[in-house]
Amino acid sequence: AYGQESLAENLRRSITEAREHQLRRHYSMDDIVVEPKHAEFGGSDFARAPALIKRGYDEAVKGLANGTFTKLLHYQLSPEAWAAYQFELQARRLRLNRHPVPLFVQAISTRVQVAPARRSALKGPWIPVVETSGVAEQELASRLDGFVGKNLADPEVGESLTSEINRICGEGRYESIAYEMTTDKEGRQGLLLRAKEKTYAPPFINFGSDIDTAESNVVHFSLKARTTFVEANGGGAEGRLSFSLGSRNAAEFEYYKPLAHRSMFIAPRIFYSRGNENLFGFGVQTATYRTEEYGVGLDVGSPLSRQSEVRLGVELGRLNNELSVGAPDSGVRSGTYSALRLKYGYDDQDGDLVPSRGLRIDTTSRLFASAPGAQKHFFESSIRISQFSKLSRDQSLFTILEGGTTFGVEAPPLLRFTLGGPFRLGAYGLDEFQGDNYLFASVGLLRRVSRLPDVVGGKVFAAGWYEVGGVGAARRAYRIRNSASFGLLVETILGPVFIGGSIGENAHRSIYLTLGGSF
After folding, report:
1. What's the average model confidence in pLDDT over 129-145?
2. Confidence band, pLDDT 50/70/90 cuts, at residue 43
3. Residue 94 half-sphere exposure, CB side, CA atoms within 13 Å?
4. DSSP-assigned letter for residue 12
5. Nearest 5°: CA angle at 439, between 437 and 443?
């Protein structure tokens, strides 16, 4: 029978036999085994974790009732010993927590000890853990110096401490940070932080991709990646390398360095990109340019809160524009540019792929001192606001508002605002509308209808929304257009996938697939 099985079936059987042999070997050494029935659970049923946990709990309760755990009675303390332990524990808590006001902050980090390369595995009944207290831990402790002299029993102070610890964990260096009161050799009480380092990072690497089939004769496809390097001494500095390969090739490196106890930061960067840009006139494509941009920038900013930051910087670069198809536009030129940039961002939305609630605001303003094709310096500014509101467990309402202007100055063709394409007047062509001013609004509904296995993705939504927007030239009126869109939006490990279509006025319609793009 074995000889008639496929290679995959033989491999599966071999893995199963090896696993069962390992389990039997462990069971032979265990004093107590509790094995709930879990045949109906698969290896990818992460969403059914609560049911599996309950199955194990119920089995443990059953074992407690039928005497499975009687072997543990050997370790039971006598009533007198237990009472003495409780008395000492209560006395210690009173000494530390009567007035939980730390006079110092101390931090240590823990990590699982890894066996050196080419040596035998670490042996013993316990997992070896290493505790360290060096420069990184001193930096961690200094970030919480503001809680010295404060009563941690105060609800507001305790909430502030928890919020700051969560913020530090969110930066990615530590998996978790626990805290407790302690005393030093002089008997002073302080705050002790126990930080657990991640074993799999840094550096952190994230992958993604973009697919857009909105244009009937072109499929836009790009692979993306981002690597984040964290300063080894815990100073908070990060190096962020992002790149894209495909329809648009791009690379950018930014070095983020906190200053003044993290109340400010400095961020120099270098960037490069190359791709195609289309020009339209009266809804008809007139030309395609092969564009190349590279340059350097320097931002100085402040993280105003955990959800927001502001940046002010300078940008110097060069634009190379080469006609690929169509009639040349006299306003499209090549040359250097220089600009001052002001950015503000606020984001408290949940979910990296498809939010269900929260507010996000992005604003960017640039003062171009010079730019290829510009008759004089000009100022442009744009804002985008998106709000998601949860109506029920499975439904969310969203609203998006956008706008931008060059304040009456005519910008070079390839630096103008655009509308058109998926999620931005989807019934029309990609970037079909171009101008010096624009307005856009969208309102829609997301309803969760299913869920993918956790190993490949997440929620599946039925989505529908209505869009209205217009683009106008400098000192000219807008022409407002509208579009209604509908389809399925799916969370996947490669990013959000949308498949659906849009209907607009005057018989404009399109059916498309996108990967990576969203609201």
Report:
1. 81
2. low
3. 6
4. H
5. 165
